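REVIEWER CHECKLIST
Item 1: Sequence provided? yes
Item 2: Single chain? yes
Item 3: Sequence as submitted:
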Amino acid sequence: MINIKKILQKQCCMSIDKFKTKVWNTTPWFERSILMSEGFAFCAISDLFNIEVILESGVYNGRSTQMWANYFSSDTLIIAVEKAQLLKSTFKRLEPYKNVKIFRGDGPIIISDFISKFPNKKIGIFLDGPKDTAALNFAKKAFLQLNVFVVAIHDMSVTKGRFNIDCPELNGKKGELYYSLGRIEFDKWELGQFLTDEEWFVNEYSWLDKDESNFDAKQRFHWTPYTIIGTGKPNRELGSYGPTVGFAFRKKDINVT
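Item 4: Structure as written out by the authors:
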């Protein structure tokens, strides 16, 4: 039986030095960005599957896109799609990366088009819009294509004291853990899975986020790790570790040699 945890631990050990050099020390923080540890998880898992094309939906300030551009070689094509108008500063930061192509429009539609354009390439997808069940539904369709090897979905956290207005039956008492419909469906998905709030990953790689907690105090309950600001000490009151990325992949695609 494949031990996914052991395989991921080994791959993370193989990828961390490169990530520290090329990303951790070079990519600045921006408001409401993915965490550095979340970016590392995507890079390491992309290494595991030898991803050749990255398709990203949801660019916002471009921090995650810049992470991929800094980490991967210029031979790796990065297609980034954003529905809203990007800031000029974002375009300026990403302009030097010749393997990064930015498109404005509906992420799933544009990404689906590019999946079909690269039938012989290994594709990795990072979804930071759409969210929740819409992201899950798109990911399931994407996996019908054999050239899609991994799909990562952002904002899959479990939170405390949050209530679901649209689905009152999911509401609990104040302080109870809240699982979004997307996280519930993800946990049931019959594919290989990994979430960045898993205990082993938090224990081994949360140090990548040591500076994240010092930023954006107004957003700290949603956009920074569950740490006491500036100390890095655990504070589990928030539920998951940070926004959380959920990864799905086919176990048979993992090379265990």
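Item 5: Key structural point noted by reviewer: Residues 162-166, 218-223, 227-232 have pLDDT under 50 and may be disordered.
Item 6: Recommendation: ____
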